[in-house]
Amino acid sequence: MKIQSLIIAAGFVFAAATGTVMAQSAAESTMVSDPYVRAVPPGQPNSASFLTLMNNSSEAHSLVGAESPAAKVVELHTHTMENGMMQMRQVEKIDLPAGETVSLQPGGLHIMMIELTQELVPGQDVDITLKFEDGSEAQVKAPVKKLQMKMMKKDDGAMKHMKH
Fold this sequence. Notes:
By secondary structure, the protein is an alpha+beta fold. Helix content is about 15%, strand content about 45%. The chain has one domain (about 25-145): Immunoglobulin-like, CATH 2.60.40.1890.
């Protein structure tokens, strides 16, 4: 038993001394959950994909791109408020801080799918390849979902009629 422990310890010392500690790639250390693609009416040229990324690493990583056979162009985007108007902008990367979760969701960060190459039918899956800063990739199957727009609550005062 002492020999096995000694061999294991020697292996750790060798790995540390030579720098050959097996570090996980960004793709391996990032858990993807709840992926989906927004269904759009036939003929609509663009859509978006949303998901949650959990960086289980002790190192920060970044999502730097994505690809999908469902679109000619796939970009990382965010929404920002400028001059009282919501604007959508491409971003170079999405930071994934060590040990933290980042949500890509409607109205915020998302994967923009431009010039769709296929109809997005609810229930079907769309293949998406996530690309990370270290060159690693993660394959994701995202179901197409029809999103229900939330109705804005109207101000009761604006809806009251004047009595004559």
